[in-house]
Amino acid sequence: MGLNEKPLSTLHEKASYDLADFAVPTGREEAWRFTPLSRLKGLHNGKAEVTGQALTQVTTPAGVTAEWVGRGDPRIGQAYVPADRVSAQAYSAFEKALVVTVPKEATPDEPIRVEVRGGGLDGATYGHVVVKVGPLAEAVVIIEHQGSAVYADNVEFVVGDGATLKVVSLQDWEDDAVHVSHHHAQLAKDATFRSFVATLGGDLVRLAPSVSYTAPGGDADLSGLYFVDAGQHLEHRLLVDHSQPNCKSNVDYRGALQGERAHAVWIGDVIIRVEAEGTDTYELNRNLILTDGARADSVPNLEILTGEVAGAGHASASGRLDDEHIFYLQARGIPYDQARRLVIKGFLGQLIEKIQVDEIRERVLGAVEAELAR
């Protein structure tokens, strides 16, 4: 299957299942200019040998099915077409795909858990996951990454009419891991999608969440948190493609950075097509730079092709701790170090409270505490 005829946007100009349709990136391309290609360990140029060093396990509640299928299964690639070379490489190289199905009107009382555990850096592993949520169903999915690995994957979320899907994705890799991933949600009529991404570990993590709509009434909320330490490169590239009328989207990503060569990249691209009248969208990215030597690149993009929108906006801010906030707390007898931690936790905590799984919320809070104690 060749190039998709419909351009995604000016920043996502083509989509294809065929690896040959994508040139090897050089770093001069807009989509790759922030990514240190030399640290991808061959994921971008085909030199990464496939050795199967990452293991994926799934746990499903009663009534939810999980199957391992071949790439010929018609559910694979139904919602998402790879939009860059690494994504196409992952699509062409996975051995088996995981398909999780939530039946119509089902409301599982436990989350669906997908755990990816790396077993080393000797070669690469590729994965593919599809989560299909039937009409009027409600489900929670937790995707967790741990260990050391060179890993690239695609994840498709297909949310049916009137259904609700909540996803928590936790990137808690060891310090040497490399992970490049695309998460795509396709929303049917009146579907609701809630995503929370927490990226804490890894040497280089590049995660690209995206959303598309197939009918009016879709509602997407994408939240994310990242804490970048010395030498880490954590990159999030979002795309919300409004191609249906009367749909909503909200994006809120926040990061904290500390240490020499700590680098965060956030790219937010929202496109409102001519036919997407009545769209209501907003995207926000904020970065807190805690030490010298850290760098945050933040680029919001909003492409509006119709004048009939309910609301559209974006904002981005990167800066240091507010001295007035610190002084206010110190004036009330709180030591500087404790005051500093309180301000940072307040900045990130507003997002962490959106995690509706108690266990994961407490784990992310604990990870932030550990980062601040360094």
TrEMBL record:
SUPFAM superfamilies documented for this protein: Stabilizer of iron transporter SufD
Pfam families: SUFBD_core
Coiled-coil intervals: none
Record-level GO BP terms: iron-sulfur cluster assembly
SUF system FeS cluster assembly SufBD core domain residues: 123-347
PANTHER family cross-referenced by the UniProt entry: PROTEIN ABCI7, CHLOROPLASTIC (PTHR43575:SF1)
Family of the protein in this entry: Belongs to the iron-sulfur cluster assembly SufBD family.
NCBIfam families: sufD
Annotated protein name in UniProt: Fe-S cluster assembly protein SufD
Species in which this protein is naturally found: Nonomuraea longispora
Encoding gene (name): sufD
